[in-house]
Each structure stands twice: as structure tokens, then as C-alpha cells.
Amino acid sequence: MARKKLIAGNWKMNCLSAEGVALAKAVAEKVKANKYDCDFLICPPFTLLGLVKKCLRGTKIALGAQDVHFAEFGAHTGDISPLMLKDLGCSYTIIGHSERRVDHKESNALINKKAVAAHQAGLNTVICIGETGAERDAGKTIKVCQDEINGSVPADATAKNTVIAYEPIWAIGTGKTPTATDVQEVHAAIRAALAKKLGKATAQKMRILYGGSVKPNNASELLKLPDVDGALIGGASLKADDFVAIAANALK
Ligand code: PGA
């Protein structure tokens, strides 16, 4: 079954208004000018969601946040709820990025709870998993990914409302990537873990993105792998040319 590729940009904590608007407009123009046969998603910081939404009007580029709280409203100072994201025009949110797992001590259980709340509000989720360098060196990559799938992906996950992003932590922002063989092996293991948890049919349809130092020059090799259904792109998503070149190269 053919899974449509998803090219997703995670801007992380970057860009003030002018820069964010210029970047979103440049991506929108480039995507409009070409008929890429893939889905696009951009995830700016919370502060830019409203502005970026306006820049994406008339395009098929989806808007996403980088995190969400599990509650609808209430006493959660500094947090943003799924309904607030919907209200701003988001259709996606990233959940469980390793930078949140580390910086904010987010557990699989919390990520699972956030995903359930996001789905209930009608948001799609990009749930991130991936091993540290030490775990990789200890041969634990697949076990870590299986545990994170089991713990973070909720039982209500469907191929429509959930995307998995495999991001080896040691590959994020470092310019290092696993070999294509390693990426395919891990993605296949993730799909098997999803099949066990959610059933084979759902697992076959669910998109599994690769993330970690994806650039225009390695996109083609990584994205043509049978179980790689797109990319979650950090650094290279901050340059419109590079972000769109990843899609162009991936679809060659
Ligand atoms: P990177 O980040 O592309 O800069 O390595 C990926 C991510 O953290 O999502």
C-alpha cells in the first residue's frame, strides 16, 4: 500500500516575526510553483502560528505546533491546549520530541496522554521516538524504539491521526546519520511494533518519518527506503530552498 510522503519542518525555537513570515512565504511560493506529490507540514514556534497560518492560505501546507498540553483549559501556566492549537488553524502537533523528553523530562506516559488529548480535539500527532548515542552503542536501538512505541503511542492511534518520527538523538543537529541499512532496519522494526500494538492494517498505513540531519544531499537515499515515509527536518527547514529541495530530491 502506497503511503504518501510527508515532508515536515520543525523550526524549533527559531525566528522572530519578520523572519518567520518571510520563511513561510518563501516555502509557500516554492511549493505552489511545483506539483510535489507529497504532503507538507511546517511547525513554527507557538508565537508564530497565527502569522504563519496566514502565509499558508491557498496552499496545501499543513500547520503544526511543536508540543501541546493534555488539558483543554485551566490552571497550567505557560501551556497551550489542543483546542487553542485548533483555534489557530493547526491540524498537527509534534509530541515527545527528544528535546522535550530531555529538557522537560517528558515520559512516555505523558506523551501518550498528550496524544490522546490532541486526537480528541481533532489534531493529528507526530510522535517522536529514538535512541541516544549510548543506547545505540549498547545495541539497544530497537528495544528503545519498541518501548517508546508501546509507551507513547495511544491505543486510539490510527494511520490518519498519527505519524511516527524516528529520530536517533545522536543524529539530531550533528550532521551524522545512520546508514540507510540501519534506518530501514529500525523503521521496519517500528512498523512491526506498531502492528503488534495497533494491528497490521493500521501499521501498514501509518507513516514513519526519519529525522536527524536530513539535508538535500542525503534526502534521496533516506527517503527512498521502503519503510521511510517522509522526513522531520530541523535545521534544513529554516532555509526554504533546502526544505523544498528535500522534497524534490525525495520524490525523484
Ligand atoms: P535536524 O533536527 O534536522 O536539525 O537534525 C531534526 C529534529 O530534531 O526534528
Description:
There is one protein chain. By secondary structure, the chain is α/β, with parallel strands linked by helices. It has 11 helices and 8 strands. The protein has an 8-stranded parallel beta barrel, surrounded by 6 helices. Helix 1 runs parallel beside helix 11, helix 5 (108-120) packs across helix 7 (141-152) and helix 7 (141-152) packs parallel to helix 8. The longest helix has 19 residues, at 180-198. The chain is globular. The two termini are 19 Å apart. The relative contact order is 0.16. Bound molecules: 2-phosphoglycolic acid. 2-phosphoglycolic acid is lined by residues 10, 167, 172-173, 211-214, 232-236.
Question: Rg to the nearest angstrom?
Answer: 17 Å
The assigned structural class equals: alpha/beta
Largest β sheet strand count, sense and barrel closure: 8 strands, parallel, barrel
Q: Which of globular, elongated, flat, extended, rod-shaped describes the shape?
A: globular
Roughly how much helix do the residues carry, as a percent range?
Answer: 40-55%
Strand order of the largest sheet: 1-2-3-4-5-6-7-8
Average residue pLDDT: 97
Ligands, deduplicated: 2-phosphoglycolic acid
SSE order: EHEHEHEHHEHHEHHEHEH
Distance between the termini: 19 Å
What proportion strand?
15-25%
Q: What is the number of strand segments?
A: 8
Q: Provide a count of the helices.
A: 11
What are the segments in which pLDDT stays under 50 over at least 5 consecutive residues? none
